[in-house]
Amino acid sequence: MSELHYQLDLLKAMNQKLTEKERMYRMVCEAAPGAFLYFSMEQNRITTIGNWREFFDFDVRENADLERILEAVDESGREKLLETLYPERREEKAASVECLLKERRIWLSFEVQVFCGEDGKPTEKVVHIANVTKHRYQSEELLYMAYYDSLTGLYNRNCYVRLLSEYIRDASETANTVVSVMNIDIDEFNKINDRLGIIMGDELVQQFGMFLKGLCTEKVIACHLHSDVYSIAIYDPGGNRTPEYLYKKILERIRAPFRLSNGQEVNITVSVGVAEYPEAARTALELINYAELVVFRVKASGRNAIQYFDAPILSDFMNSVDLEDKLKRAVAQKDFVMYYQPQYYAGNRRLRGVEALIRWRSKEGDMVSPGTFIPVAEKNGAIVPIGKWVVEESVRQYALWRRQFGFPFVMSINISALQYKREDFVEFLMGVLDKYQVRPSEIELEITESVLIDDFTAVSERLKLLRAQGVRISLDDFGTGFSSLSYLMKLPIDTLKIDKSFVDTVLTDTATRVILESILHMVKALGYESVAEGVEKEQQYQYLHAIGCDVIQGYLFGKPLPADELEKVFEGSLS
Ligand code: C2E
Ligand code: MG
Ligand code: MG
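# magnesium ion complex -> structure
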């Protein structure tokens, strides 16, 4: 009898243990996001576990019921899902797929794991189903951003350059095929912007951009280059697909004012410059630059017109402006000055470093912005002597500060594409560092993505060399149009500078926030440091800090200042 009692007690205890275990499994599964399907192949039975009802309003008990899941997902993913649910048929142990749940419009991922017995035969299978809608949305946003300008919906610069290069390549393979590039610039946009305010100014840029998008047809593409400048490329112009025809359409449109959302009406005129392959130039970047040069010409001769590139324009421009000489003289006469803008860690607001920004003091005593003269200096090569001066001056200043204040920080220097392309660049930089006894790790070189478009391999090799020496590399203006994410991964970089255009709209635009959060997520995963540029408002700083941005640069914490004025800031922070 006692034997029986004992066995009963044992059974009870085992039962209780099993119930507890089952309770525990259920709770764990319910606490985990998503739902699970458990297949027992031996018993031909399926159990649903976890938050199954979150996704489906029916039960699945056997293989035949799986049909209902297949019916619930969008047709495009059905076949792949069916295949994925049975990885053992392909002798695989795991598989996964993402499908759209039709009625709920949510994306689900199905991850399947097969378990085998000692004989290696599949015995059980677990499918984990999770809601991946947010993740999908973020990847689509990132993909969109890789090709389009978020303000106008037109192609972004990098994508445009690539498509234009394809037009040129196709044209080079067919006899007598022309590719026209027309740059369109809104006249006196600065004044309009000042009058309307930045937000309405952006809206005007957006409305005009959307109008240009309407002009695109097969073999006509448009891009928002920057600020108020657009570019249209036409493959094999003819009939209704010529610069004149498009210009006529633009004139018809701008005869009427643009009506902005605050009720204001704005009239604009535009200056248009055209450069054509093969006559003007043979590469995409050159064509865009020459079209821009023609726009300068149109502006100089009274605006509101269209002009075509011809050789005299180039030489006229060079002669009349005589920029190369002027710039060289400016170097010799020390007409340039360096300003430095501080960068602070978002967490403790301590100084992280400064960015060196060049200024040109004109004869009249005005400060000419680098945005105006750097592109010209890049066109005619004057950037090389200027860039050398910038490197030497910034490193010299850094060495001085290091001695004076003692605290280490990073000196960020902007380097243009042409400088990286010179074979002696690495040697030159190391020479300067040696001369002033500055460690490579105290210097950061900023590059923009345009540097990489032409010659990715050579530039990236040079960057690797610099980095091997300990120099930090930073990718500037990030987000204004990277070609692809995989591109990024191949770059030897330490820091990513998020462009001001994101910071500008971060408080008002949900899409920007989604993109920014996923960028920062990615930056963290890749182990880079993130710097936000152009932070002007306390709320922008608070938000950026909250979503994990490491470093803040912007007027909120400090404008670019000449060395002696910045010293006062340093002294203040030390006392
Ligand atoms: P960048 O490298 O992206 O520099 C940041 C620009 O944003 C600077 O303009 C800076 O003054 C401005 N900025 C910073 N914080 C704020 C803010 O809170 N609000 C606003 N509105 N602006 C802010 P800057 O100095 O006019 O320089 C323009 C561009 O010219 C630079 O963009 C860089 O690409 C180029 N550049 C400047 N110095 C050099 C140089 O020495 N060499 C080369 N190659 N390029 C340079
Ligand atoms: Mg920069
Ligand atoms: Mg920048």
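# post-check
The two ends are 89 Å apart (CA to CA).
Residues 149-309 form a domain with the Alpha-Beta Plaits fold (CATH 3.30.70.270).
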